[in-house]
Amino acid sequence: MFSTLLSNSFFEDLENQADCKTCPSGYYCLAGSTNYTDTPCPNGHYCLNGTTADNQYPCPAGIFNNLPVN
């Protein structure tokens, strides 16, 4: 049974684990995530470890990210 109490920025891909895993850079994790690979960081944004939303870190003015998962 996967935990339904996971907060944003964490995921758990294994059942019955005591600890959650921090969402890795290049991805963002929504509450209750069991897989981070389905939420890659979108173009024009970057995602640090523990990013909680797709638009949390927009690229600064004059800089862009045209590659997903960065």
User: What is the beta-strand fraction?
Assistant: 5-15%
Distance between the termini: 31 Å
SS field, number of helical segments: 0
Number of strands: 2
Stretches where pLDDT is under 50 for at least 5 consecutive residues are: none
Helical content, roughly?
under 10%
Number of spatially distinct domains: 1
Structural class: little secondary structure
Largest sheet: 2 strands, antiparallel
- As a whole number of angstroms, the C-alpha radius of gyration is 13 Å
Mean pLDDT: 79
State the strand order across the main sheet. 1-2
Principal-axis shape: elongated
One letter per element, helices H and strands E, the order comes to EE
What does this structure look like?
0% of the residues lie in helices and 6% in strands. It has strands at residues 10-11, 21-22. It is built from no helices and two strands. It has one domain (1-70). It is mostly loops. Strands 1-2 form a two-stranded antiparallel ribbon.
